[in-house]
Design goal:
Blueprint (H helix, E strand, L loop, with lengths): L1 E4 L1 H8 L4 H8 L6 E5 L1 H33 L4 H38 L1 E3 L3 H9 L8 H15 L6 E4 L3 H4 L2 H9 L2 E4 L2 H11 L2
Parallel strand pairs: 1-2, 1-4, 2-3, 4-5
Length: about 200
């Protein structure tokens, strides 16, 4: 069977938010072929860079608070605050390092294991023409179009789409389009695994 995935799988595993998805990726059953639109790799890198900027801004704010607290030489609470923030900053940076390591490993695993759906001009145009999802969600529209186009090439294969982005891909019109194309949508790895087990009792 074909299992379509997208950017959120990479980011969800990198952030440690879905252990089952991590196990599924690194121990994929032989019966499953993972497929991902190539644009998801670009989106994953962009998402990571944006998060790094937010992390840097957050650390700068912590540093400012530490400096301000250390200047307050009359309050024991100020000194405690500086010490606590300093330790929190260290823990935060260590967590970011953990996330970066998982991000690199996950991206490498997906790149080596998954079949990529190349981005074609036709898919971009069709994603614009198809009146599903708002225009501000152009990347999601392109991802969806890539998956639909790929699925139509494999009508006789069981297909599923796993994405934690239920806000967009879980919308009724999107779910209907996926269903009409022979794709079963899942927003949780647990639900997909339960369905998969039912297919192969």
């Amino acid at each position: 069977m074909i299992l379509y995935v997208e950017t959120n799988l990479i980011m969800g595993i990198a952030k440690g938010q879905d252990v089952e998805a991590q196990d599924l990726l690194f121990n994929t059953p032989a019966s499953i072929s993972i497929v991902i639109p190539s644009i998801c790799f670009l989106e994953a890198h962009t998402t990571w860079q944006n998060e790094q900027k937010h992390n840097k801004d957050f650390i700068e704010k912590i540093n400012n608070q530490i400096s301000e607290s250390k200047r307050d030489i009359t309050s024991i609470n100020a000194q405690l605050t500086a010490s606590s923030l300093d330790q929190s900053k260290i823990s935060f940076q260590e967590r970011i390092s953990d996330v970066k390591n998982r991000f690199d490993l996950t991206l490498d695993a997906v790149a080596n294991k998954a079949e990529e759906i190349p981005l074609e001009i036709a898919a971009i145009q069709e994603s614009i023409d198809r009146k599903i999802l708002e225009d501000k969600h152009l990347i999601d529209k392109i991802i969806l179009e890539c998956i639909i186009r790929h699925a139509l090439l494999h009508p006789d294969i069981t297909k599923a789409f796993l994405s934690f982005n239920s806000k967009e891909f879980g919308k009724r019109e999107v779910a209907q389009l996926l269903q009409d194309t022979g794709i079963r949508y899942f927003s949780k790895t647990t639900n997909f695994l339960g369905w998969l087990q039912a297919q192969n009792p």
